[in-house]
Design goal:
The protein is about 40% helix and about 15% strand. The chain has about 950 residues and is α/β, with parallel strands linked by helices. It is globular, with a radius of gyration of 29 Å.
Length: about 950
């Protein structure tokens, strides 16, 4: 594409006040979606409203620059990337109109996330209505993108595809006309807009002529199965379907017009549901029961095989799958009803019918809401986690979305699975079995010429197979770059010609998402892995499978070595976009604050992937301005290491890059002040009175601001050394105890009262309590990129704590517990590091285990508690322990802060990051604290406690040990 054309376009857009970027960092972020493909754009635009979208399209039409509209960028088919200009509608076009409860509809901007729309609808209707489509990307996929590929979801057997919920569309054509489309109409939004009026008339005439001239093929070849998504949905232009222009545009993948708003239909929200989980000997047996199950009219029929369950067990622990019945394949069947008894009865009746066929080997009927949610997470999270095998080898989409009629599903699978085996692939399979849609990830080799040839041969043979079963190449993801070239396998030449004519009516210049559906690009072209180095082992000691990556598990955080030439496992990112979710998990706090792709885990990983592509490695990347900008607002909260389905760890990447960059160089002042804080604390506690006076002396604070420590951040009071000794003596430690308490630097210097409280709680639970030798885990050295210093401290700690016993080591500061558990085996390695890591417990985990052994807290529980789990504890130990403890304690009302508090160690204390720290706090902890004046506020993490005091200096937060303390001071200190 001529650079001059792009330059003229960008100047024109900037003159019009439209935000457009062409920095290397921004182009790296938008070169990928969640597919196998990479296409580097020339620029990215962020329009704020319809007028700006029109201006963009007029300018692109005049200059001939290709244009790709993009929502959440979660496409697995490659239809959200393109050369030329990418138009991101997700960042600013996010308004939702007033709910029309009488008609059960609402107008919504194209950039609104499906899950956020659903939450709005349920709140506005007081729980009576909901928005039905629920793909697994619900928390980040947008309305525009979901219309573009005609998304469905788990409940499509009850609610159908996005097509069935689109009532009207507002769209901008390639030449800037602003139109509204619906059943039997296509008109200008503004009747005084002559260009749009003229264009609407031309299109209506052309579409009617196209439909009338092709009645037979439209009736014969289209809409023959529930999930026939491939190609254009021009069958909706037939007279018997009401000439529905909006429905015809659903699934057009941004190739005909840019959808800017939609009026979507809503459905009654089920009052309650019951889940029947069925276990089978194999996937084909499960598919043979689908028609019997469909006859019972469930609201969902979802399938998954044992490989998905194994991945879930490995990454999330055995407890995550312990509600499943026995089996090697499973169906999850949901019934909705007015009462839970009625829904459970529906499950029982279906079981009786299935028993006659004899294929079900075990089952579970689940009516309790939390257990239902847990089982659904196996299907939803397991599908994302299947992007990596247990041994770390990546799996890929490509043939991940085929569909057949449900009655032919078993026969199709009986031929598809041997085909997979024939090509030497391993399949991870799940899908919407009630609709005949099969999602499958395969361990393709897309790096080598031979591997790409095999991939191509398999895909062509698989296409012929699904068509032989009367099926569709795509069941909800769209054709994109992955399948458009194969449409002539599925359709007649006349139908392919109809598709071309339909596209030409809307976009005669062919600038909208070119190469998709019509005049397709080869599906084996533009593959992202071509020319990218193969990951390999970095710090030895373990044998890695070629191409494998670190895949953390609940059993061992070091099953596989860290990989090179990538840092922080960043090559593992495949674009799923879970980091763009604003609810669920802790990832990614900076994105939740800015809503900018650059501040997401995915955006950062893509920048580092592009660096590796161009330079052969992402090591020493801190010298690259785009890398520094991408990682600047990373809080190092480590949430991505647990919440990212592929285990990308941006905190580790940042630590490695900073470490490499500053070797032999003068570091920022904060690296010596905050980064070395445990080294200074013994001195500062000796002169606590003077240190506390100095920390409140404004001139000192202003000097600190100049040096990088925020003058606006409240600083903690240092405990006097005598007070520290008194508290440790009060703990009453004994030799040869059952459990050892590790007193970290922060608890010792700032919250020594936690030490005796924790000892009393552990003794009350039935354990004698001792104290570990003094040691430092090196956390602050890691977070400031001083990894050699951290390694030395961790090595010393491991040597002291590896005492030949298996006694629990209970660590009061959760971030220190996480460091010993997670970083010890990685930075130090060896059997001793693993032994110590296995013994480490955060305090909440230790209490949770005591409760599971039958102990119950004796302190009086509060009526309300606000819980802020430390992000490092969430990442390494999970965020459920404290909640379970509070429930067992008998706390009736619990308010959870569901994300990072915003401090995350040194980040929130740094002057340049203070504002972002408080913005992050506004997402979760600030709302949680609203009205919490009489509540118990729990902050086991010292950083979290500091943020609470920053938000409300009058509000006191407590460590769980203080709250549970059975002694005379319990809950009062």
């Amino acid at each position: 594409m001529p650079k001059n054309d792009v330059a003229v376009l960008l100047n024109e857009l900037r003159d019009a006040g439209i935000e457009v970027e062409e920095t290397p960092r921004r182009l790296s972020e938008y070169s990928y979606d969640a597919s196998n493909y990479r296409v580097r754009p020339s620029a990215v635009a962020f329009p704020q409203n319809v007028d700006e979208v029109r201006a963009v399209m007029r300018a692109c039409s005049a200059s001939g620059v290709p244009t790709t509209a993009r929502g959440g960028g979660t496409s697995m088919a490659g239809n959200a990337i393109g050369e030329g200009l990418v138009v991101d509608l997700s960042r600013r076009m996010t308004s939702v109109g007033t709910l029309d409860a009488d008609h059960g509809t609402v107008w919504v901007d194209a950039g609104v996330v499906l899950g956020e729309l659903r939450s709005y609808v349920e709140r506005a209707s007081e729980g009576r209505l909901t928005f039905a489509p629920d793909p697994s990307s619900l928390t980040r996929a947008t309305i525009g993108g979901s219309i573009g590929n005609d998304a469905c979801g788990n409940h499509s057997v009850a609610y159908g595809r996005m097509t069935h919920h689109v009532k009207e569309l507002e769209l901008v054509t390639a030449d800037g006309a602003y139109l509204r489309a619906g059943k039997d109409f296509l008109q200008a939004v503004d009747a005084t807009d002559k260009h749009s009026v003229t264009r609407a008339g031309e299109l209506m005439d052309g579409l009617k002529e196209l439909a009338q001239a092709n009645l037979a093929p439209l009736r014969v070849e289209l809409q023959s199965i529930p999930r026939q998504v491939s190609g254009y949905h021009v069958g909706h232009l037939l007279p018997e379907h009401g000439f529905d222009v909006a429905a015809a545009l659903a699934g057009s993948e941004g190739t005909c017009a840019v959808v800017v708003r939609a009026r979507v239909g809503l459905v009654p929200k089920p009052r309650t549901t019951a889940l029947l989980c069925l276990g089978y000997a194999n996937t084909i047996d499960s598919a043979r029961d689908v028609m019997t199950i469909l006859a019972a009219k469930p609201s969902a029929i979802e399938g998954l095989d044992a490989s998905i369950v194994d991945i879930m067990r490995h990454r999330r622990g055995s407890a995550s799958v312990d509600s499943l019945p026995e089996g090697n394949a499973f169906l999850m069947v949901e019934f909705s009803a007015d009462s839970i008894g009625q829904a459970a009865s529906d499950c029982e009746r279906l079981l009786e019918k299935l028993a006659a066929d004899g294929r079900v080997i075990d089952h579970a009927i689940v009516t309790e809401p939390s257990e239902r949610a847990k089982l659904w997470r196996v299907r939803e999270d397991g599908a994302g986690l299947s992007s990596r095998r247990i041994d770390g080898i990546q799996t890929w989409p490509g043939w991940e979305d085929s569909a057949v009629a449900p009655e032919r599903l078993a026969d199709y699978l009986a031929e598809l699975l041997p085909l997979v085996k024939k090509y030497g692939y391993t399949a991870f399979m799940y899908g919407h079995f009630g609709a005949g849609c099969v999602h499958m990830r395969l361990d393709y080799d897309l790096r080598s010429d031979e591997g790409r040839t095999t991939f191509s041969d398999f895909t062509r043979e698989a296409a012929k197979l699904v068509v032989s079963h009367g099926g569709s190449l795509s069941g909800e993801h769209g054709d994109g770059r992955a399948r458009s070239e194969l449409l002539d396998v599925m359709y007649s030449s006349s139908m392919v010609g109809i598709f071309k004519a339909f596209k030409n009516l809307w976009d005669p210049a062919g600038i909208l998402n070119p190469g998709i559906i019509v005049d397709p690009k080869p599906f084996a072209a533009s593959l992202a892995l071509e020319g990218v180095p193969l990951p390999g082992p970095d710090h030895g000691g373990l044998h890695a499978v070629a191409g494998a990556a670190v895949l953390p598990s609940t059993e061992s955080r070091q099953l596989l070595p860290v990989v090179s030439p990538f840092v922080g496992n960043t090559h593992a990112c495949i674009g799923v976009g879970r980091c763009r979710a604003t609810t669920g998990g802790f990832m990614c706090p900076s994105y939740r604050a800015t809503k900018d792709e650059k501040d997401s885990t995915r955006g950062r990983a893509r920048v580092l992937q592009e660096l590796t592509r161009s330079k052969g490695t992402s090591h020493n990347g801190w010298s690259s301005p785009e890398v520094r900008e991408a990682l600047d607002l990373c809080l190092s909260c480590k949430a991505c290491s647990a919440d990212c389905p592929t285990g990308v760890d941006i905190a580790e990447a940042k630590s490695q890059l900073v470490d490499e960059h500053y070797k032999g160089r003068i570091r920022p002042f904060t690296h010596y002040s905050i980064g070395w804080l445990p080294r200074w604390l013994p001195l500062l506690t000796r002169i606590a009175a003077l240190a506390n006076l100095g920390s409140g002396f404004r001139p000192f604070r202003l000097v600190g601001e100049w040096l990088g420590v925020s003058a606006r951040r409240r600083l903690p009071d240092f405990a006097q050394r005598g007070r520290i000794r008194q508290r440790i003596q009060e703990a009453g430690f004994t030799d040869g105890a059952d459990a050892l308490l590790f007193i970290d630097s922060f608890t010792r210097a700032f919250r020594p009262e936690v030490v005796p409280a924790a000892a009393r709680v552990l003794r009350d639970s039935g354990s004698s309590v001792g104290c570990t030798p003094d040691a430092c885990c090196g956390l602050t050295w890691i977070s400031t990129g001083q990894r050699d210093g951290a390694r030395r401290r961790l090595a010393q700690l491991i040597e002291k704590l590896d005492d030949g016993t298996d006694r629990d080591i209970v660590v009061l500061e959760p971030s220190c517990a996480a460091t010993i558990r997670d970083e010890g085996p990685k930075l130090v390695g060896g059997a001793a590091a693993s032994r110590v890591a296995d013994r480490v417990r955060s305090f909440s985990v230790a209490v949770d285990e005591a409760i599971n052994r039958g102990w119950k807290p004796t302190a009086q529980p509060p009526v309300t508690a606000v819980l802020q789990t430390h992000c490092h504890e969430h990442a390494v130990f999970g965020s459920g322990a404290q909640k379970r403890v509070l429930e067992a304690w008998g706390v009736p009302q619990l308010v959870e802060s569901s994300s990072c508090c915003g401090v995350a160690g040194n980040f929130g204390f740094e002057a340049e990051h203070f504002d972002m720290s408080m913005k992050v706090a506004g997402h979760s902890i600030v709302p949680a604290l609203a009205g919490a004046s009489d509540a118990l506020v729990l902050t086991d993490g010292f950083s979290c406690a500091m943020q609470v005091s920053q938000i409300d200096p009058e509000l006191s937060s407590k460590h769980l040990a203080i709250a549970l303390d059975p002694g005379p001071s319990g809950g009062t200190e």
